[in-house]
Amino acid sequence: MNNQQILLTIALGGKTLSLGKDTEIKLVDVEGLESPDYEISVQNNAQFDGGTVTGRRAAPRSILITGECGCSEDTERQRAALIRFFNPASPGQLTVDYCGVVRRIGFELESFKAHRANLYEPLTFLAGLLCPDPYFRDVDEHGGDMAAKRGLLTAPFVLKPEGAAFSVRTMRQEAEILNDGDKPTGFVVAFHATDTVLNPSFESLTTGEKIRVNVRLQAGDVLTVSTLRGQKRIELGGKSANHLLDPQSTLFQLQRGVNVLKYGADSGYTALSVYPKWSAEYLGV
User: Fold this and answer.
1) What pLDDT score does 235 carry?
2) What is the rounded distance in angstroms from the CA atom of residue 13 to the CA atom of residue 132?
């Protein structure tokens, strides 16, 4: 695709629809990609002029998409297919490729209107997408094992004596994560135990905040901690375990810029594989 173009991909109800300059259905116009509306709460001062700002928030985002089907024998087929596609029964996801910058956002279908004055004119339609969470995200989540293995095999390969190591765990308890988004963002971290681990923890050396879970993990256990906005939770083996969170813990966010993170445990941290996952959040695309 020409990197000076805009390509929209709408995923809804298990199907996808692409709109751009060179697609079967053309993109005529799109509004609402730049930034959401903002709401500022102000409390009037009782004793003097003006007021005091008590809160700031980004409002849900509305995206309006105008598309066009060319006038052909297939136009009525396309019209019927569009009516079936834009079904509000389930949430969807919009992926935007704006001049090579690719980001995604979840949405609920708010409206769909098709217009054709007569059978000799192209079919145009207007789709309204309501995004309760107004922030765009990277298409792919970032992450990896903080205690990954590093291969020791080299070429040319020579068979080593019995007991020789073919890989080694780096055991990096600390890692730097760059959040290049426009706001602090939550994350999900999964602790995979290969032996007994007591009270695993995850902390930000940047802010001093720490998550500690009071649990004894056994080999094969998977503990998951989410600090995502609206989805904060602790799970052990896929089941809710919020009661295991240490009272002194903070389900912290990744700050904008570089975050230095560290995992550990009261004992047995070498038996952990630790997988943090996150996606930066952006005001627009």
Assistant:
1) 98
2) 18
